[in-house]
Structures are given as structure tokens and as C-alpha cells.
Amino acid sequence: RSNGPMVEAALQLGDSRLSLTYLPLKFKGTSTLQTAVNFNGQTYNVGNTVASTFKADIYDIAYTYYLVNMDDTPSRLQLGVDAAVKITKAQTTLSDSTLGITQTRSATVPIPTIGVRGRVALADFVGLTGRIGYLGYAGNRFLDGEAQIEFSPIPTLGIFGGYRYIQLKVDNSGVFTDLRFSGPFAGALFRF
Q1: Which of 66, 56, 23, 63 is nearest to 187 (CA)?
Q2: pTM reported for the whole predicted model
Q3: φ/ψ bin of 155: left (φ > 0), alpha (ψ from -120 to 50), beta (otherwise)
Q4: Is the alpha carbon torsion for 65, 82, 159, 189 positive or negative?
Q5: Torsion of CA 110, 111, 115, 117, to 10 degrees
Q6: Torsion-angle region of 47 (φ positive above 0: left; ψ -120 to 50: alpha; else: beta)
Q7: Could you tell me which residues are beta bridge partners of residue 45?
Q8: Do 59 and 31 touch, CB atoms closer than 8 A?
Q9: Considering only Cβ atoms within 10 Å of each terminal Cβ, which end of the chain, N or C, has fewer?
Q10: Under DSSP, is residue 32 helix (H, G, I), strand (E, B) or coil?
Q11: Is the separation of the CB atoms in 152 and 188 below 8 Å?
Q12: What is the pLDDT of residues 112-150, one digit of tens each?
């Protein structure tokens, strides 16, 4: 689940779009181990109940170049190539109350993605936007896709709602996680 608001700032000049997005994530779970687990040099035994927490702060720096950019017409169409770096600061914690131990491991992983971004709109009044990006390397991967509907009764102010899907796999510096995050989102936008 997201542990706070996602924030995005974007600058568009001609066919180029530069954006910076921040997304905090946090997941918790408790389970009885079916197999022994070695985490951060500590062995967690079969049958013990462990609690785990995964936190990630994702900083997404993206550049889009629109191959099709009809942004100055009443019916708007934009379609471009999107390159991004997802700088992911991840922390995993594993606690075993039977043994009375807690181990934490952290890593910062830059994960590049490449994908597409598009927008179809009737002026700035109502529009549909979408993007998808993926790339993996050295055991790490990031798949990030979203679609949203924007409604702007005033050209500079509006609201939006959509759906986002993220798959994150981190295998670096002793931190391993493989998770999926998806769900609806809503917010407000300001253009100038």
C-alpha cells in the first residue's frame, strides 16, 4: 500500500517532457515459516512465526520525447517514448519473536526503465493518459504502468483518477523482495 501521497511535478517544452515523481510504499506481513530462511546472516527456523516489513521510497526521474504531439489543437493526441530512472531506497526487516531477534537490511537501487507515454484529450477539459515502463538488470526489475482520466472544468485546475500497477524485484546487497502493488488512485492537478 502507499504510505503517503504521491507527488509529481512535470515540465513540458515543445516535444519534451521532464518529470519527477515521489511514491512511498510500505508492506507488512506475519507468517509461520515453512522452510528455514537465512536473512542478514541470521537463520530463521521452520515453524517460527516471523513478521516482515518492506519499505521503499521511489524517486522517478523521467524524460519523454513525443513522436506525435498535437497538443495545440482542440482534440489532443500525444504519443512518445519515455525513459526513466526509478531510484528505489528499500529497507527490509524480519523479526522472530520466538528467538527475540530483528534484522534489517537496506539498499538504494537505481532501476532504469524504458516505455511509452500517451494522452488523448478534448482540449484540457477531459483526457485519458497512460504510460508503461519496464527494464530489468542484474536481478532487479521494475514494471510500472498506469492509466488515468483527467477532468479540468478550468484549464489550470482539475481532478484525476486512475489505476496503477507496479511490480518491483530487488536483489541487491543482501536485500531481496519481489512484490506487486496495484490499485486505484485519485488526486488534483494544477497546470500553468
Answers
A1: 23
A2: 0.80
A3: alpha
A4: negative
A5: -50
A6: left
A7: none
A8: no
A9: C
A10: strand
A11: no
A12: 899 999 999 988 789 999 999 998 777 777 899 999 999
